[in-house]
Amino acid sequence: MNPDIEAYHNTLSEADRAIADLLAQEIDKGLPNAENKIWHRHPVWFLNGNPIVGYSKLKSGIRLMFWSGMGFDEEVLQPGTGKFKDASITYTSVDEINTKDLKRWLKKSMEVQWDYKNIVKRKGKLVKL
Predict the structure, then answer these.
(1) What is the mean pLDDT of residues 96-108?
(2) What is the C-alpha separation between 7 and 99, in angstroms, rounded?
(3) Which residue from 97, 73, 100 is spatially nearest to 85, judged by alpha carbons?
(4) How far apart are CA 54 and CA 80, in angstroms?
(5) What pLDDT, in 10s, does the model give residues 44-87?
(6) pLDDT the model gives residue 113
(7) Strand pairing category for 87-91 and 42-47
(8) 12-21 burial by CB neighbour count: b if 16+ within 10 A, else e?
(9) How confident is the model over 11-46, as pLDDT tens digits?
(10) In terms of Cα–Cα distance, which of 22, 20, 19, 43 is closest to 93?
(11) Could you state, in order of their start, the residue ranges of all structural domains in the chain?
């Protein structure tokens, strides 16, 4: 595991760390060619410099977010603010994580992508890859 991500996990409670550890393990397996790092203070995985998936600690639990998740056509993933194409799910227990769903979402995350890498260059306009 990336040492910076491991350090992030070490700041979490035992229950939240169990969630984060499982998510990191499954994301690493599902996106073996992805770069991962702490980005905006949270673990994020990138393909060709484009953010794909990450998670963060919220008061309500650990939120798993897919940057292009609205295009996955998955009811359980909740859309973000509407400004971008993100969608997420929040976990409060490691038992809530359905690894079969997660594997399917990770596969979709490679197929359905919006170009967040160049959003600044395009002055906030998103383009589908």
Answers:
(1) 98
(2) 24
(3) 73
(4) 14
(5) 999 999 999 999 999 999 999 999 999 999 999 999 877 789 99
(6) 86
(7) unpaired
(8) eeeebbbbbb
(9) 999 999 999 999 999 999 999 999 999 999 999 999
(10) 19
(11) 3-111
Q: What is the CATH number of domain 3-111?
A: 3.90.1150.200
| Cβ-contact 49, 117 below 8 angstroms | yes
Q: What is the side-by-side strand order in the sheet with 35-39?
A: 35-39, 42-47, 50-58, 61-66, 87-91, 78-79
d(CA 23, CA 36): 13
| Cα–Cα distance for residue pair 4/41, rounded to 1 Å | 10
Q: Which among 77, 112, 127, 98 has a CA at the least distance from the CA of 26?
A: 98
Which amino acid is present at 104? Answer: R
Contacts of 29 (CB under 8 A, 6+ apart): none
